[in-house]
Specification:
With 386 residues, this protein is α/β, with parallel strands linked by helices. The structure holds ligand GMT.
C-alpha cells in the first residue's frame, strides 16, 4: 500500500507516533510518504520505502501570516498525484485533516484516495474545542473516511463534545518499539546523572501548562527528602522557568538536571528508576508507555487515558490530579522497596510488550486501512459529502 502521512515534525507524541507508524509500515513492505514542513524528528537515516516531501511555503509581503494549511493541501494534492497514493493518514486534526480534505476535494474527479484522521489529544480536548475552531474541527473529522483515537477516553470525549457518531471512531492505541525502548541498553548515562548511586527520577514532556511540571518538582523534592535521588527533566517549553524556580525555592536545584530537548529519549529512560507524569489532561501518555517499556514504574495522575496505559497498583500508581503528597508517598513506596520495584518494573515491561508492542498494534492500522479503502470503493462513508 502507498500511504501519505502528515504530522507535526517537531518534538511531541503525535509526531513520534506518526513517524514510528510510517517506519513500521515501511518495514512491513508498504511505501510511506511523509508530507510536512520539516523532516519528522524521529526520522533519521536512510530507510527503504520511506520518502519525505517538504511543504513549500511561498512568502509574499501581502501574507502577514503564512498560509500553511493551504500549502500543505497543495503538497498533499501534489504527492497523491505524483506517487499514486492509496490512502492519506493525517495525525492531529488541526489543521491537517482540513488540509487533507481540501486536497481530496481537488482530487475528487480523479477518484482521490480515502482520508484517515488520527485524533491525538488537544486537537480534541483543547484547541479544537475553542469556539473558533470547533465547527471546522468537527467538519474535518466528519469528512474523513476513517477516524481513529489513541484511547477510549479520547473517543468518548470526541463523541460527546463533537457529536461524532460512536461507530465512526476506531480506537487504536499508541505503541512502542520494545526493541528500542528497553532496560540496560548502551549507552546508558546512569553514572553521569547519578554519580553517587542515587535513584534516577525522570520526566519527559513539552513543559506546557497541561503537564504541571511544577508538580513534578514538588513530588521529586518530597521523594528526595526520604531517598537519595536526582531528577532528570528532558524536554522544553513554556513552564520550564517556573519549574526551575520551584526547584530553587525548594532547595533541590543541584539535584535537578534540565536537559532540554532530546531526540533519543530511549537512552535516558533506559537508566531511569521512576517516571513522573503529572498532567491534568493526557489522552494517552506516550512518554509513560516508553518508560514502561524500559521497565520504569510510573507515578502520575489519574487523568484522561493514562489509566488505559499504566496498570494502577501493578506497574505504578495513579493519584487524583494535584495530589502531590500522595504521589510523593507512592514514589517513596516504589523506590524504597527493592522487591516491589522489581515486581513493578517487570509488570511495566510486560504490559508494554503484551499490549502495546509495535508488532501487536500495527496490524490494526493495516486492517483499518483495508477496511476504509474497501468501504470507499463500495461507496460507503462520507465521500459523497466532500
Ligand atoms: O495533543 C497534544 O497535546 C499534542 C500531542 C503531541 O503531539 O504531543 O500529545 C497528545 O498525543 C500524544 C500521542 O498520541 C499522547 O500520548 C498525549 O497524551 C497527547 N497529549 C495530551 O492529550 C495532552
Amino acid at each position: 500500500m502507498k500511504v501519505g502521512i502528515t504530522c507535526y515534525p517537531t518534538y511531541g507524541g503525535s509526531g513520534a507516533v506518526a513517524t514510528e507508524l510510517g517506519i513500521g509500515l515501511a518495514a512491513r513492505g508498504h511505501e510511506i510518504h511523509f508530507i510536512s514542513y520539516a523532516q519528522p524528528f524521529r526520522l533519521s537515516g536512510f530507510r527503504e520505502r520511506v520518502y519525505f516531501h517538504e511543504v513549500e511555503m511561498e512568502r509574499y509581503p501581502l501574507f502577514e501570516h503564512p498560509h500553511y494549511t493551504l500549502a500543505l493541501a497543495a503538497a498533499i494534492h501534489d504527492t497523491v498525484l505524483r506517487e499514486s497514493l492509496d490512502l492519506i493518514h493525517v495525525h492531529y486534526a488541526i489543521p491537517h485533516a482540513t488540509s487533507a480534505w481540501i486536497a481530496c476535494a481537488m482530487l475528487e474527479e480523479n477518484g482521490g484516495p480515502p482520508l484517515v484522521t488520527t485524533l491525538h489529544g488537544t486537537d480534541v480536548t483543547l484547541v479544537g474545542l475553542h469556539p473558533s475552531f470547533h465547527p471546522i474541527t468537527r467538519f474535518s473529522i466528519m469528512r474523513s473516511q476513517g477516524v481513529t483515537a489513541v484511547s477510549s477516553f479520547l473517543k468518548e470525549v470526541t463523541v460527546r463534545d463533537f457529536d461524532v457518531p460512536r461507530e465512526r471512531i476506531r480506537v487504536i492505541p499508541n505503541f512502542v518499539d520494545t526493541k528500542v525502548f528497553h532496560r540496560g541498553r548502551d549507552p546508558c548515562h546512569r553514572d553521569v546523572f547519578a554519580p553517587g548511586g542515587e535513584k534516577i527520577v525522570m520526566h519527559v514532556s513539552n513543559f506546557r501548562p497541561v503537564k504541571r511540571v511544577v508538580d513534578v518538582i514538588e513530588v521529586f523534592a518530597g521523594i528526595r527528602r526520604e531517598i537519595p535521588a536526582r531528577l532528570v527533566m528532558a524536554g522544553d517549553g513554556p513552564d520550564r522557568p517556573r519549574a526551575a524556580e520551584r526547584a530553587r525555592t525548594l532547595g533541590v536545584q543541584e539535584d535537578v538536571i534540565f536537559l532540554g530537548k532530546h531526540a533519543a529519549v530511549e537512552e535516558l529512560l533506559a537508566c531511569a528508576d521512576l517516571f513522573l507524569m503529572t498532567s491534568d489532561r493526557e489522552s494517552f501518555g506516550l512518554a509513560a508507555l516508553e518508560a514502561l517499556s524500559c521497565g520504569v514504574p510510573v507515578v502520575g495522575y489519574r487523568a484522561g487515558g493514562l489509566p488505559e496505559v499504566v496498570p494502577d497498583g501493578e506497574a505504578g500508581f495513579l493519584l487524583p490530579v494535584g495530589a502531590v503528597e500522595e504521589a510523593t508517598a507512592a514514589g517513596v513506596e516504589i523506590l524504597g522497596d527493592p522487591e516491589r520495584w522489581r515486581r513493578f518494573s517487570e509488570a511495566a515491561r510486560g504490559v508494554a510488550v503484551e499490549r502495546f508492542g509495535v508488532g501487536r498494534v500495527l496490524p490494526h492500522y493495516e486492517a483499518y486501512y483495508a477496511e476504509v479503502i474497501a468501504g470507499m470503493n463500495a461507496g460507503a462513508g462520507p465521500r459523497g459529502g466532500r
